[in-house]
Amino acid sequence: MNWHLLQLSEIEQLLNSSPKGLDSITASELLLGNGKNQIADQKKKTPFQMFLHQFTDFMILVLIAAAIISGIIGDLVDTIIILAIIMINAVVGFIQEYRAEKAMEALKKIAANTARVLRDGKTIDIDASDLVPGDVVVLEAGNIIPADIRFLEAHKIKVDESTLTGESHNTEKTAEILPEGKYGLGDRTNIGFKGTNITNGRALAYVVATGMNTELGHIAKMIQQEETATPLQKRLIAFGKRLSIVILLICTVIFVIGWLRGGAILEMLLTSISLAVAAIPEALPALVTIALAVGAKRLVKNKALIRKLPAVETLGSVTYICTDKTGTLTLNKMTVQETYEIPITNADFDFFKENSLLNAMALNNDIKIAKDKKWLGDSTELALVKYAFDKNIKKNTLEKILPRVAELPFDSSRKCMTTLHQTEKGILVITKGAVDELFDKLDKKQKALIPEIERKVNEISEKGFRVLGYAIKLLPLLPEKLNTQDIETSLTLIGFAGMIDPPREEAKQAVAECKQAGIVPVMITGDHQLTAKAIAKQLGIITSDEDLVLSGSELSALTQTQFEVIVEKIRVYARVNPEQKLKIIKALQDKNQFVAMTGDGVNDAPALKNADIGIAMGINGTEVSKEAAHMILLDDNFATIVKAIRHGRRIFDNILKFIKYTMTSNSGEIWAIFLAPFLGLPIPLLAIHILWINLVTDGLPGLALVSEASETNSMNRPPRNPKENIFSGGMAIHILWVGFLMGAVTLGMQAWAMQNNNHWQTMAFTVLCLSQMGHVMAIRSERESVFKIGFLSNKPLLGAILLTFGLQMMIVYTPFFNKTFRTQPLTLNELLITFAVSSIIFCAVEIEKWFKRKWK
Ligand code: ATP
Predict the structure, then answer these.
(1) Where are the bilayer-spanning segments (predicted)?
(2) 145, 286, 492, 531: which sits with the fewest CB atoms below 10 Å from its CB?
């Protein structure tokens, strides 16, 4: 439909709507007919497909084939058992994947965009996916356009359509109808497209197409980003491939030796295949996703919403947190503490002379008074308007006498804003902004006063106050074109106000915690250098003369190379523009730092994308910034970043423990089966035993490790180098030696039991299974003894161990399973000996940790 060529009245008729919007009943009917306003996710698997997917793994297919062949030639019971084990494994795999998927979906739902619409004559916020054609949406700078729209009213609207057209400049939009002709997407100036960003102005618009009917829907593939693997997953996949070859070689050797020693060829084949299936860690990358998704779910409870899963993993590597000041480090609750008036000498302003500063405070702002009498708007402006109000200068009354006729809105690069008011003498221009930014805009006569004013401003700023100045001038007529250079010049400064924004108490502690953890907190602010420095001192960000403060203008004077010499010393960047954040990120990254960066505005988006972890603000952030971020702070609080890092470190530690546990178990089995022939022993385990241990009893305790609490030193050690090999730092050695010990203990048990006419196979099988329970208990902490952290402190793990133990006892003591698993009930004596021998692994790992505590 050529919506851009239609009159608004025609559109209203077609959509059955009006500038007042739809009523909610019509809207819900339309929603039923049109479907949700979202881009269909083609890749989504149904639960059944997810279940089937569990069987597509190559190794499992090999196992199924082997089981069937063995069934045809030999033992049908074996076949059934193996198939049952594979089935249980598939069910467990399915449940895990399904839960991870649900956790991710829940996260996506919280992250979903909202849209502001007119419904039943009221302005309300709804889930953007509930929009229907005919809805009237209210839009402003920072919004992502939620559907395809036709503008009905547009005030200085500019839209960044690069996501759609690839062109990065902003397109101006109007509500005007276009003359007949052919127009490309980028030329339809009265249409806004779903997924593009409003960078300036405000507007009302009709929704004309939703969901898959939008232009974005037509090219849906563009946004269907591949879910990429996390850095750890990539490494695990590469490592898994190499390891698989080694394991396959070992299994071939075991097969050949077994066969040469006269073992039944089929049995040896099945044992080797089972060992290969069990020992190749092909499920590890998927399990990492589960651990990360579960971790992300927990982070939401702590007010950190993860938008990109790899962020959970990389949080622990952050070395620099570059954070905004206002609202994140401070409370964003401003109050005016002092004012300073400069007498007006120019007779032209006689009508404005009395209470000029207070009048300017009441007039120059965008504060709105809601129906419930609540004042809405930016906290800086709220403070100023309230100050004037308390002194009996009321915004509403004054605006009736001096109505606002135009404005130049605030932007953080100019650091000021201007309102224009109709008076009898002409147009009164009031500019409010950072005083140092106003200096250049003053008329010649006042420039002589600057040094004195500057002294006064510095004095107030040093207390950590934000200082805002007011300047005015008169124009004979309202200019046709409003541009800042012409209007914000030759102004007369009439005074300024100093306001306090107290630092957040919890931010102080969080800064201290960061420093303990080897993370450098850096403040980036649009505020004055002295204000920023004072707050940074109060928070502990600056503690010595070596901690530097750099201003935006100093930063732009430096070349990238010069900047990189000092970048690691800078703790505060003041009066910077959002665009300069990119330069800071690049310099730190060039120095091999891992940077987390916060941002809330539209122009913070590039920095958020380029930071290693981009963090947007949930309350005060624009949608564009949220879309670009890896993580969203639901409470806009700096302390939450530090909390998220603490959790990130814990999650990563636990993933490492999980890898350590699984790989050591595999190593134990390989050692036992590989060494047996060399010691003249029969292979201790049957194929079904190997599969049982790996695919059933191993999984539960391993997964429960994800719930382990933080290591006591998790925030007292430096950040993890993201490039570091996970198997360094002793993990590989642990896997080899503890695995070897497990194998040795199993074979020792076997040899002893064979000599003493005991049930050697059941004993060896049970020892191997229980040794792993001991191992998982001992590796719960990297350094601390389990006796210190408490045996009962990880309840899910305790439950998993008890369950596994119960299952093993079921196999040993019930006649049905005795038959199928070829086990025999152990005597009490045998059982106790098995327990004692299994505890060797637990004790050995505890001793390993004791050495670690002693020597490291
Ligand atoms: P931070 O970057 O620490 O979060 P901020 O977001 O408040 O601080 P900006 O909004 O970029 O920083 O503001 C920069 C400067 O612009 C402020 O120091 C102040 O001097 C000025 N300023 C802020 N708000 C307004 C406003 N509403 N009108 C005029 N000037 C303002």
Answers:
(1) 51-73, 79-98, 243-262, 268-294, 670-693, 726-747, 797-816, 828-847
(2) 286
Joined tokens for residue 128: 């953007």
Residue type, position 231, single letter: P
pLDDT above 80: residue 764? yes
Say how many C-beta atoms besides its own lie within 10 A of residue 245's C-beta.
10
Whether residue 362 lies inside any domain: the answer is: yes
Domains contained in the chain, number: 5
Helix (H, G, I), strand (E, B) or coil at 573: strand
Phi, psi of 336 (to 5 degrees): -70, 130
The two three-digit tokens of residue 436, written as one number: 């140092």
Q: Is the pLDDT of residue 392 over 70?
A: yes
Residue 141 and residue 217 in one domain: yes
Ligand 1 atom with minimal separation from the 437 CA: 20
Q: How far is the CA of 328 from the centre of ligand 1 (A)?
A: 14
Residue 538 confidence (pLDDT): 95
Query: Which residue is associated with the tokens 């001096």?
Result: 402
Report the candidate in 661, 708, 706, 697 with the shortest Cα–Cα distance to residue 802: 697
Residues in the chain: 856
pLDDT at 793 over 60: yes
Residue 267 C-beta-side C-alpha neighbours within 13 Å: 15
- Gyration radius from the chain CA atoms: 34
Beta bridge partners of 375: 369
CB contact burial 517-531 (16+ within 10 A = b; e otherwise): bebbbbbbbbbbbbb
Q: How confident is the model at residue 513 (pLDDT cuts 50, 70, 90)?
A: very high
Q: What is the pTM of this model?
A: 0.79
Enumerate residues 6+ apart whose C-beta is below 8 A from 584: 322, 524, 555, 567, 573, 597
Domain-embedded: residue 704: yes
Q: What distance in angstroms lies between residue 148's CA and the mean position of ligand 1's atoms? A: 33
Domain that holds residue 603: 320-332+504-634
Q: How far is the CA of 755 from the centre of ligand 1 (A)?
A: 83
Identify the band that residue 222 occupies on the pLDDT scale cut at 50, 70 and 90: very low
3-state secondary structure 289-320: HHHHHHHHHHHHHCCEEECCCHHHHHHHHCCE
Residues 59 and 37 in one domain: no
The whole-chain average pLDDT of the chain stands at: 88
Domain CATH for 376: 3.40.1110.10
Query: In sequence order, what E strands does 188-240 have?
Result: 191-192, 197-209
Give the β-pairing of 320-324 and 520-524. Answer: parallel
Q: How far apart are CA 167 and CA 158, in angstroms?
A: 13
Any catalytic annotation for residue 390? no
Ligand 1 atom with the shortest distance to the CA of 329: 3
Q: Residues lining ligand 1, judged by CB closer than 6 Å?
A: 324-326, 378, 380-381, 410, 412, 415-417, 432-434, 466, 468, 525-527
- Report residue 102 as tokens: 């649900």
Question: What pLDDT was estimated at residue 103?
Answer: 67
Contact 808, 697 (CB under 8 A): yes
Residue the block writes with tokens 């624009």? 622
Confidence of residue 77 (pLDDT cuts 50, 70, 90): confident
Catalytic residue among 57, 78, 148, 324: 324
Residues 837, 763 within the same domain: yes
Residue with CA nearest ligand 1 atom 14: 526
Q: Which of 373-377, 477-481, 514-518 has the highest mean pLDDT?
A: 514-518
Do 75 and 147 lie in one domain? The reply is no
CATH code (residue 626): 3.40.50.1000
511/540 Cα distance (integer angstroms): 7
For residue 225, pLDDT over 50 is answered with no
**CA-CA distance, 626 to 516, in Å (whole number)?**
29
Cα–Cα dist 605/627, whole Å: 8
Q: Are residues 473 and 521 in the same domain?
A: no
Ligand 1 atom at minimal distance to the Cα of residue 575: 14
At 30, which CATH number?
2.70.150.10
